[in-house]
Amino acid sequence: MPASKKQECLEFATFKLIKNMKAIIEFELPQDATEHQTALDGWKWRMILNDVSESIRHDLKYTEIPAEVYKALESLRGFIFQRMTEENLSFD
Predict the structure, then answer these.
(1) 70: part of which helix (H) or strand (E)?
(2) Which residues contact 73 (CB under 8 A, 6 or more apart)?
(3) Cα–Cα distance between 35 and 40 in angstroms, integer?
């Protein structure tokens, strides 16, 4: 088999392997119901926090607000991103 054909087969096999990867998280219900619901709702928390951050960004950029409010919002947004960085999280 030519080298290029072997490479094609290897790339296809790698793609198939990656395509079929799965992660399964198991909970013992009903005793782990709170943790289970938290895992299910994670995306909702992410969206809410993203909306808060974007709202703050909009206010900082487009709204005339007193300097002390500006500093407080800037600090809050910085805190959000600092904590996300510490936990290796992003909005991407």
Answers:
(1) helix 67-86
(2) 56, 59, 60, 65
(3) 9
Q: Which strand (E) or helix (H) includes residue 51?
A: helix 33-62
Amino acid in the structure at residue 40: L
Which candidate, 40, 37, 80, places its Cα nearest to that of 56?
A: 80
In one letter, which amino acid is 37? Q
pTM for this prediction: 0.70
Structure tokens at 5: 């054909």
Going residue by residue through the chain, which has 92 residues, state the pLDDT in tens, using 9 for 90 and above: 556 666 665 565 556 666 677 889 999 999 999 999 999 999 999 999 999 999 999 999 999 999 999 999 999 999 999 999 999 999 98
Question: What are the start-end ranges of the E strands in the chain?
Answer: none
